[in-house]
Write a structure and sequence with these properties.
With 356 residues, this protein is mainly alpha-helical. Helices cover 61% and strands 7% of the residues. It is found in: Nucleus.
Length: 356
Amino acid sequence: MSAQLGKVLSLILCERFGPVVEKVGTYLFQYGTTPLLYIKRNTELPLSKVKESLCILIKYRLVSFVPNKNENVANYSLDAEKVLLMLRYPKYINLIKKKFGDESEMIIEEILQRSYWTASELILKVHERLSKNTENTVPLLELKEKFISLVTAKYLIRLPYSEGDKPIPDLKINDKELHLVPNIDIKQLINAKSSTVHDFLDRNIYWTVNFDRFHQDMRDKIIVTAFTIKFDENAGEFVKLLLQQMYIRTEPWADVSNPVPILEIKDLLKKQTREASGGSFQIYLKEAFTQFAWEIVEQCVLEKFDSKAARIFRLVKLKKYIESDQIQQLAMIPAKEAKRLSYQLLEENFLKNPRT
C-alpha cells in the first residue's frame, strides 16, 4: 500500500508543481521527518532548489516543520493526506457553487490555487476576474459579504502565525481567532483599483480553506442519501433536519449527537407542513456509517457468490465466532455446500480463522 500511495503522491506533486518539487516530496514521504541538508544530500538537488521546493510545499500546507533538538534547525515532514486532498479540489469548488453561487465559487477557487490570501487582496482579485468575464460587474461590497458568509459558515479559516522571533517559527492561533472577520475597508479597495501601492488594514491576516468543513458536508450528504435509499425521502429529510440541528449543540465529528428536542424539530417541520410526535432524537453517526458499510459488504458477497454465501456471512457477523459444524445447522445449508462456501469466503478474506 505504501508503494502504491507513494506513486499516487508523486504523480499529484509532479502534475501540480513539477519534477523538482515532486522529488523533494517523494523523498520526505519515503524517509519521514528529515532536516534540510539530508534532503539535499539524498536528492542530489542544489540547495537553492531544495529550499524553493520546501517553500512551495509549506505554502500549500503539504509539508510541516518542527525545531530540531538544538532549535536552530528544522525537521520537515510531508502530510500525505493533504496531498491526496488536492484530488478533491473540484468537488470543493462545485459544492460552494451550488450552495453560495458563482462569486463564492471564485473565492474558493482562488484560495485553492494560491493556498492563502488576505481578505482584501482576494476580494480585489475576484472582482478583477468578474469584471473581465461578465458585463455586469459585481460590487465590491457584495464580494465582501460573500467572503464574510464563507468565514461565518467556517469554510474559510485564518492561518496560524508566529508572534516570537525564533529561528524556527512556532505557528499558533487561538480558536476564537479562526473565524474572526477582519476589518475590510471598502474605500481602500476602491482606491486600490487605481493604485499599485496597497496598505490594507488586514495585510497581515491570511485566510485558507477549511477542508474539515467541506468533509462534514460530504459526510452529511452520504448519510442523508443512504437513509433516503434504504427507507424513503421523508426519512432522508428528517435525518437532514437532525444533522442541521446537531451542529448547534454537538461537535461535528462526535460519534453520537446530543439529543435534539422535539420542539425544535416541530418548528422546522411546521415550515414544511409536516408533523412530529413527542420526545427527543439523537443521531448515531458512527453506528449509521457502520451499518451501511456492513450492508455494502453483504451486497458484495451476494453479488460475488450467491444468497447462501451471504447467509453464511451474515451468520458469522451476528455470532462473531462460530464453529464450522454450526454453520450448516444455523444457516440451514447442506454440510458439503456450507464447507465449500465457507472456504471460498475464507480464501477471499471475507472471513478469517482466529486460530491462524
